[in-house]
């Protein structure tokens, strides 16, 4: 039998490769076990998730369902026990620990429920901080970019104030500006509206919508069903597994096609026993500590 030519092999694999390349996040059969004095607890149970650029996804579920553990996988805060986590072309399961902080600093922007702004730095200095860690540009260039980002979130007039002298909504907008400092392709928000009043939460959500429209990928953990219903897609987590629904917005139809081409499995998985080992407050603390270390 004739051996396939290089061109023929390339043609046969190109569609699958293109489909994979179109996915910004590709999580495959991920398991995460935590070993404690009480025994081994499974926080994620064969989780698979595919996300394309520009998607705005809500991650919902009860406390202990695995939401924050999933974010930990995507942000490289934690490593899976089994399975692969590909984010922005990098296999995080194999990323050397010494490279993790610099990778995270340029690839992922993180927004916390309680803002996590450093109280002794001004709002402007807080936004500049990720650029300082990444050694990005000159001091003047960092300042100019920070001011431009604060202008985008309608906070430039608060630039020289300390965070505690601003409102909760203003602090969250400053935190979003900080998350965007190094222009990451992905924004991860853990309950970003949970500590805000309804009007302010809506304003923050609209900012996320604008970022997604500008082709940023946004993953937002939320307990707000109304806000979740306005995203492109909702990822439901139950007992460490994903039970996913179809895209709701017309703009997500192309994404669904890309996922299908990549062989994504959208069949809902049956729930299994799962403890409350991965509480959101624990994940927030760990994310904050890792950002400071990075």
Please name the defining characteristics of this protein:
6-stranded mixed β-sheet; alpha/beta; 10 helices; 294 residues; 21% strand; Rossmann fold; single chain; 4-stranded antiparallel β-sheet; disordered C terminus
Describe the model.
This protein has 294 residues and is an alpha/beta fold. The chain has one domain: Rossmann fold (3-Layer(aba) Sandwich), CATH 3.40.50. 39% of the residues lie in helices and 21% in strands. It has 10 helices and 10 strands. The chain has helices spanning 6-21, 67-74, 97-107, 123-133, 139-152, 168-179, 198-213, 225-228, 253-261, 280-293; strands at 25-36, 39-51, 56-60, 82-87, 90-91, 108-111, 186-190, 217-221, 233-238, 241-244. The chain has a 6-stranded mixed beta sheet, with helices on both faces. The protein has a 4-stranded antiparallel beta sheet with strand order 2-1-4-5. A hairpin with a 2-residue loop joins β1 and β2. The chain is globular.
Task: Please describe the topology of this protein.
Blueprint lengths: L5 H16 L3 E12 L2 E13 L4 E5 L6 H8 L7 E6 L2 E2 L5 H11 E4 L11 H11 L5 H14 L15 H12 L6 E5 L7 H16 L3 E5 L3 H4 L4 E6 L2 E4 L8 H9 L18 H14 L1
Parallel strand pairs: 3-8, 3-9, 6-7, 7-8
Antiparallel strand pairs: 1-2, 1-4, 4-5, 9-10
Helix pairs in contact: 2-10, 4-5, 4-6, 5-6
